[in-house]
TrEMBL record, chain A:
PANTHER family: UPF0276 PROTEIN HI_1600. This is UPF0276 protein SAMN05428953_11261. It comes from Mesorhizobium muleiense. Belongs to the UPF0276 family. HAMAP family: UPF0276.
Automatic annotation (TrEMBL), chain B:
One of its GO terms (molecular function) is DNA binding. Residues 19-98 form the Putative DNA-binding domain. Keywords: DNA-binding. The keyword DNA-binding applies. This is Putative DNA-binding domain-containing protein. It comes from the Bacteria. Transmembrane segments: none annotated. The keyword Transport does not apply.
Length: 342, 258
């Protein structure tokens, strides 16, 4: 039975991760959401959720996000699973397909978690091969997502960001920038989140992920746990603002996997992402008016990690605040120059 | 330096809760203790897979209480981790595992109830095809006996314990009085997916044999003859009417060789 699905490109706007508790409401209400993303592994059977997605795919642009291909496995990609992934893509004809720079199994065991790689030449050859196999099988470019990590392996000869940039060169893959993952790893492993994003080839970034994380204290070690179980925190919004300031708008996904709230909360977060992107685009347009001479753009201020930061209702507002001072400064400079010219 | 595959095998074993030596030279975590950080992965794996099992076996959770279930689940995960990324397929061996698990020897009906819950989980992940009605059998004046194709979600469960009664008694927050003194009594159950839900029917041994033979693709004639060995007065028409009435027939083939 040939599919007759409409071609729906994913817009440079915010979408939401489709979670099964929301299926009935999505089907009956058809709320305004830019696009939907699903985990490929949940749609490999014949459940009611599969029928629901077939229905929603008529209306919403779709992204298929794999969590189980284990592109970092030294033993290679599981061909059976790749074939299932191919069938999901044939069935739903997604506009975007993505996976992680990670491994999730070894010795025949699947760990249901994403582990980091040792970032060296040997791993690069393995992952590049695996990505090529996946792209050849799916007959399309895939996006590779950066990881949230709690450990790193001794003996790495490059950073994760450099590794990703090299994968783009070798395989032609795109990148999925998970801003929350950058923030979580940067905190846990002690590197500079903004500098990580700087290293990525901007034109390869085809999608951005946003999510919340948990803060855990284990003895004197404060670890951020990537649990996708809360609103996007202000620090992550700020990092996001800096990223789209640099790259321009990108399809942006709100992910929420544990303690999934009512659908409107997800849609609300997506709306904030759109507003933030719109306000940055608006300011960029203003900056490009001939009167404002300085071409300087806001550096994307990173709100520092604060252990005791009050968890307000709308953490996103801090990101708007953070981009404002830079704007005012730019305005002041522009005025000064105008005065000087007069 | 360890080859990547060897490194991944060691770390995977550690994440599964099987202690490994010399990990601290392989991993680091800024200023934090890397072995303690590795335990985050171990916890994530155990917690997420335990949650998967709890979602599939909610009645078993209530029968043995949650703490015992978590203990049993973590042992199961360590000994039988998933073999592939489709988590809906994880747990098929759990009923058998419970059947041999220490502490449950006195409660064999727990593992049997788990078997029913696994059949429910399988049915929920199976496709639901458009059903034919009885009229589809008309008009084919063929001499061969037809083969009936049944819903892919149909599962047939036979137990020496009244597992559907046990399962039903635990629905909607029910706490049965005789929680651990169920009497042995055979039950034969058909279950299948209907939309988001599962429907059940209790069957006689003849009805069970009839549906079981059809599901195996033996054709109507052999299904009837097998049912008749259980029950010489087997009501063939009644069995067909309920099969169609329950929406379980999805196709009819008239080219069966026998």
């Amino acid at each position: 039975m040939p599919n007759k699905l409409p071609t729906l490109p994913i817009p440079q706007a915010a979408g939401i991760g489709l979670r099964s508790p929301h299926n009935a409401e999505m089907l009956s209400r058809r709320p305004s959401a830019g696009w939907l993303e699903v985990h490929a592994e949940n749609y490999m059977g014949g459940s009611a959720a599969v029928a629901a997605l077939e229905n929603l795919r008529e209306t919403y642009p779709l992204s298929v996000h794999g969590v189980g291909l284990s592109l970092g496995s030294a033993s290679g990609v599981d061909r059976d699973h790749l074939e299932r992934m191919r069938k999901v893509c044939v069935r739903f004809e997604p506009d975007l397909v993505s996976e992680h720079l990670a491994w999730s199994g070894a010795d025949g065991a699947y760990l249901n978690d994403l582990l980091p790689l040792r970032y060296d030449e040997a791993a690069l050859a393995i992952v590049a091969n695996n990505i090529k196999l996946v792209q050849d099988t799916l007959k399309r470019r895939i996006l590779i997502e950066n990881l949230s990590a709690y450990i790193e392996f001794s003996g790495s000869t490059m950073t994760e960001a450099e590794f990703l940039a090299e994968l783009v060169k070798r395989t032609g893959c795109g990148l999925l920038l998970d801003v929350n993952n950058v923030y979580v790893s940067a905190h846990n492993l002690g590197f500079d989140a903004a500098a990580f994003i700087e290293v990525l080839p901007a034109e390869a970034i085809g999608e951005i992920h946003l999510a919340g994380h948990a803060v855990n204290d284990v003895g004197d070690d404060t670890v951020l746990i990537d649990d996708h179980g809360s609103r996007v925190p202000s620090a992550v919004w700020s990092l996001y603002a800096g990223a789209i300031e640099k790259f321009g708008p990108r399809p942006t996904l709100i992910e929420w996997d544990t303690d999934v709230p009512v659908l409107d909360v997800l849609l609300g977060e997506a709306m904030w992402a759109d507003m933030l992107a719109a306000s940055i685009a608006f300011r960029k347009r203003q900056d490009s008016l001939p009167v404002s001479a300085p071409k300087q753009s806001a550096p994307g201020i990173v709100v520092p990690f604060e252990r005791d930061a009050p968890r307000g209702q709308m953490p996103v507002l801090a990101a708007f605040d953070a981009i404002k001072p830079a704007r005012l400064a730019a305005d002041r400079d522009a005025r000064r120059i105008r005065h000087a010219a007069a | 330096m360890l080859p990547l595959e060897h490194l991944q095998n060691i770390i995977a074993q550690s994440v599964l809760g099987n202690p490994q030596f010399g990990l601290s030279s392989l991993v680091s975590a800024g200023r934090a203790d890397p072995c303690r950080r590795l335990r985050i992965y171990e916890n994530n794996t155990r917690a997420s897979l335990t949650a998967t099992l709890m979602a599939v076996f909610p009645v078993v959770v209530r029968m043995v209480d949650e703490r015992f279930f978590r203990y049993a689940a973590s042992e199961f995960i360590r000994q039988h981790p998933p073999g592939e990324p489709r988590l809906v397929r994880y747990g098929s061996d759990f009923p058998r595992f419970l059947g041999t698990f220490e502490g449950l020897a006195e409660m064999p009906f727990v593992a049997e109830t788990a078997r029913l819950e696994w059949a429910i989980a399988e049915a929920l992940d199976a496709a639901s095809l458009p059903a034919l009605n009885l009229a589809a059998l008309d008009g084919e004046a063929s001499s061969s006996t037809p083969e009936l194709m049944l819903q892919p979600s149909l599962r047939l469960v036979m137990s020496h314990w009244p597992v559907l009664s046990i399962w039903s008694a635990h629905q909607n927050g029910g706490v049965p009085d005789q929680a651990d003194v169920w009497q042995r009594k055979a039950e034969r159950i058909a279950l299948w997916r209907h939309g988001d839900n599962v429907r059940f029917a209790r069957l006689t041994s003849a009805q069970f044999s009839f549906r079981h033979s059809l599901k195996k693709g033996l054709g109507l004639e052999r299904a009837v003859s097998r049912a008749l060995t259980h029950e010489p007065m087997f009501d063939v028409l009644g069995a067909l009417v309920s099969l169609f009435g329950e929406g379980l027939v999805t196709g009819i083939g008239f080219d069966h060789p026998q």
